Amino acid sequence: MIEGRANELPDFQVFRTVIKYCMVIIIVPVLSFFVAKSILFDGVLRLDPINSSVYSAVVAVVVLHVALGLYIFKAYSETEKDPKPVKKD
Description:
By secondary structure, the protein is mainly alpha-helical. Helix 1 (about 1-45) packs antiparallel against helix 2 (about 50-75). It is built from two helices and no strands. It has a domain at about 30-75. It is found in: Endoplasmic reticulum membrane; Endoplasmic reticulum-Golgi intermediate compartment membrane; Cytoplasmic vesicle, COPII-coated vesicle membrane. Required for the assembly of the V0 complex of the vacuolar ATPase (V-ATPase) in the endoplasmic reticulum.
């Protein structure tokens, strides 16, 4: 029974990591779009609504690619921590 629980723990950690990155991939680009549009492009630069929406979409796409790149980097850089089998003499 204990061995079964030990095998479930890494699966749960992987699931939790995937859920975290999914939330980042969904929420952060949307927030960056609206923040860039309302504060930077409409507020500071005072662009017309169409241009500010286009530039904000570009910002959101760049942020999305950065988040996806971080997820891919994490997926490839994870090392397996398999315990080495103990030899019995």
